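Request:
You are asked to prepare a plain-text protein record giving the amino acid sequence and the backbone structure tokens, at your earliest convenience.
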Amino acid sequence: CTAKMRKSAMRLATLRRIARRNRGGINRRGRADVRLVSSSASKGFIVERKQSSIQTQIVNNTRALSTHAEAKAEEAQQEGVSGPSYGTQAILETFASCKAQGRPAFVAYTTIGYPTEKETLDVMHGLVKGGADIIELGVPFTDPLADGPTIQTSNQVALDNGIISIDQCLSVVKKARAEGITVPLVLMGYYNPFLMYGEQRLMEAVREAGADGFIVVDLPPEEAASFKRSASSEGLSYIPLIAPTTTEDRVRVLLSHADSFVYAVALTGVTGARKSNDSNLPELLGRIKKYSDLPVAAGFGVSSHAQFQDAGAQCDGVIVGSAIINEIKESPQGQIRPHLSSFCAELTGRDLEEIAKTSAADRAAPPVGAADSKRPAEKEGRKAEEEEEGISALGEAKHRFGEFGGRYVPETLMEPLEELERVYAAVQHDEKFIKECEEFYAYIGRPTPLHLADRLTEHAGGANIWLKREDLNHTGAHKINNAICQALLAKRLGKKRIIAETGAGQHGVATATACAKLKMECIVYMGAADVERQALNVFRMEMLGAKVIAVESGSRTLKDAINEAMRDWVTNIRTTHYLVGSAIGPYPFPTIVRDFQSIIGRESRAQMLEKAGKLPDAVIACVGGGSNAIGMFYPFKDDEDVQLIGVEAAGDGIDTNQHSATLSKGVPGVLHGTRTYLLQEQTGQITGTHSISAGLDYPGVGPEHADMKFTGRAQYKPVDDRQALLGFKATTMHEGIIPALETAHALYQAIEEAKTMGEGKDILVCLSGRGDKDINTIRKSLPKFGCKLNVRMIPDQN
């Protein structure tokens, strides 16, 4: 098909979609069959919301739009337009064709760029020859948090092969179409690369390349209004996922967003081949079919013919991914096509000759209307689009801090997050829960003292420097404030298994301490690089009874520990609470962590008024994810005369690629369930980071900090490794306090601010942790800065 013919075919397919959506159809000759609704339906739409359920009933007079679609279709027919359907319509027709043949659709997954870019085309040809009806093309991403080891590896191999951009992925799609692959192609991936490309630009490019739709793992409908609207404008499908944890009310909402088929996640957990179908698929399908007769394809774990048959007997399609990636890996050199086609035929129980006879080009067209399916509420016209967006926006404002925050997570996590939100809302003002938390303050060591650092003030030669001594807490840092209270919250949820991530190890130690005290199981994920540089804290966690799991993937630091913790949570959602340690992640975690850490700022505010007779002129704290900083800043947020200064890790310098200064050098994106500033490439791939301090070595930041930067309420300044060591040196020498390397960044900046602010001013610093854990790291780093054995020998000037 020439480019002109394909463009015309796309145009006609869009017209078909418009007419169908407006209760019309397109007959096989290309003429619109318009069936107008009754005149009584012209009164608009009504939305009712009762308790937690959302029921939508939209009736709209579609005469003008349908007449326009009919006229355009007639015009297209007169121009001699012909060619295949594409997008939503092509997917619907594929499912209808498979149904007519009495079999489930075979939806096959592969990762673009795996094992190489060129061999991806061989993979696609092998899948089609083996009977694939639809191909999901995985878009490589640095942090595929919902995927198991097999697809994680395929993503990393593709990235290592240089497949890092959407344009490269679409180039593969174009080549596939040029080589005669006609089955629907669906891009499957994570939102950030799509977001960075630009949604409307993305849809136009995807349509032009010849792909048909999207499955976006971490983009639930609540966050997808603009994405879905842009996709629909180009005739492309947005395919929602429904999981075993999805409630019935939520199923209804999700189905209102479906337009081609529904992806039924057959079990909780990450992707990966399994030996048996241990899911509760019939119950899940029953809930879906109760509200829609759109095709349903089931995925997660299918790897054998018996599993395929079992799933195929219950639903309209079967999705296979990890098993295919495993077979690609096992393919003999140069034999990917025949190896995969044989595997797929064996998997589906079909004969290769039979598949060839019913190839996409020769399949009988489905009957007119065969692709039309009911939805829980027909959505027609612009008002319907506005209503869909309204449904997505329900509760959105409270999930955000200005433009930042949200819930960008796999569907499996949506209901647990809503449950957490409900329970936390109930205990926030529950005197019994508050008292339960406060009863642990003596155990923690609260209130922590406020210390006037007189010798450090003298050293700086300017403003008074006050230290809020969170290093004196039990376990040696501020992290215990959140760990104890969140563990108590987990008990309210009925969860006895706790998982946590940690970078410097302080949150891991605090979580292990809380679990030991409250008799709870504890698993801590820690990047392998951090395990090496924080060996003392690893030993402390293990002594406290925690199981420490070293994460070898990615950069082997905090980011990767979070990825692995979230995979654990997805898999063990019914028994496990993820005790997030920083003010990051999907709502309500940033709010929960902020509230539990705000004891720091509340105490400090009262202590400053008592000891200094006034509020501080500036409040300074180090920022990685940002828990100690937001806990310190929040009680001062409305005090406009108080400067709020966050200090980031500049590593080897912000003009290098070896730093963690997210707010200084990052741009907004989506990672770990939240929209915030990120260190990332233009392609949306997350970059590596570096800091001498493990706790600041993170490419993102809490969304409330992102908002405070965006609005100008707080300033965020970078401090490099050498400067942090100078802050460490000054505090150790002049105050006899050995601070954590994270805190040392804030102390250096406090000294610099004191010099410029002058006498009579007051600076409050959150001394977030003690430095015992960092001694080996400091000792190993000293030669880099011109001295061998003694931190006192670090020159104050370069």
Q: What stands out?
A: Confidence is low (pLDDT under 50) at residues 14-82, 360-387, 389-395. The chain is about 45% helix and 15% strand. Residues 3-21 form the longest helix (19 residues). The CA atoms of residues 125 and 180 lie 9 Å apart.
